[in-house]
Amino acid sequence: MNFLRRKPSLPAALKPRLSPDERVVAWSLVAGDQAVVATNHGLWLPGSPEFLGWHDIHKAAWSGRELRITPAEIAEERESYTVFVDGPILTFLLLEPGDLPDQVRTRVTKSVAYTTHHPLASGAGGARVVGRRVAGRNGLTWAVRYDAGTPVELPAVVELTDQLVATAQGTMAAPD
Length: 176
Description:
By secondary structure, this protein is an alpha+beta fold.
């Protein structure tokens, strides 16, 4: 008889401190008897109490051996949105990846409810406006990620970005 093999449960010693409504959806061992743990809320990184919500991950790539995560870092808080930049890329060699890479890709993608890129006038770069779902919170959080070389402190760029975000928020507003 063929039985489906089920991955064993995450060892208690590797289980992060989860919130009451958080559950493990996938995990993989990495070197040093540590694990990358994906939950319905985000990704717990090995060897630290660091947690990245799905909405905090700009990019996730899987090479077939390594999981590469590019976290978002706050560059500036503005009135109705946050300006993010790419954080340092985090790379993990997954010893038994199972469905962890697929769960990461799926959940990062599902956190994005709205995304659009806008070139800015006069070749001054561009801005990506993103509305993302955050686990356990109603509504969307709004962020902007500028192209490299965009003069982000110019008043005209800030004003245009404010307008772009307001338009996006209006587009995604719930109908009355």
